Amino acid sequence: MNKFKKIFQMMYSRNFIITLVAVATLVSIVQIQQIFALPQHTMARRSTFFDIECKGVYNKSIFFRLDRVCDDCYSLFREPQLHTLCKNQCFTTMYFKGCLDALHLNDEIEDIKQYIKLLNGADPNSIVE
């Protein structure tokens, strides 16, 4: 009986230690993620229609569709300047084109050109070639 009790205590303390280590590891991972988490883009930090030199007609859903391309590109590469460079000049820079390529959105290019034309007031053939 005494031998069984010792084995039970050893197994209990071993399981307890394993559980304690697992919990401590999970807590550490959560803390590290919170420390190194990149800031989220809030509405206050978003560029407005006029800040990025759009001169066409403002359409909220189209603007946010193109803005989402830049958000997704930022999420992919985690390069802070990329979000701004992508949207610069009303989504007509090579950075925006690069984001379309990186996100494999080339099949949507004709629709995107029309969206940019509406927002920018520019000829879609001169955009995102």
TrEMBL record:
Protein localization: Secreted
UniProt keyword annotations, A-Z: Cleavage on pair of basic residues, Disulfide bond, Hormone, Secreted
MF terms in GO: neuropeptide hormone activity
Example of a GO biological process term: circadian rhythm
SUPFAM superfamilies membership: Crustacean CHH/MIH/GIH neurohormone
Domain of life: Eukaryota
Disulfide bonds: C54-C90, C70-C86, C73-C99
Cellular component terms (Gene Ontology): extracellular region
Annotated PANTHER family: ION TRANSPORT PEPTIDE, ISOFORM C
Family per record: Belongs to the arthropod CHH/MIH/GIH/VIH hormone family.
Name of the protein in question: CSON007572 protein
Organism of derivation: Culicoides sonorensis (Biting midge)
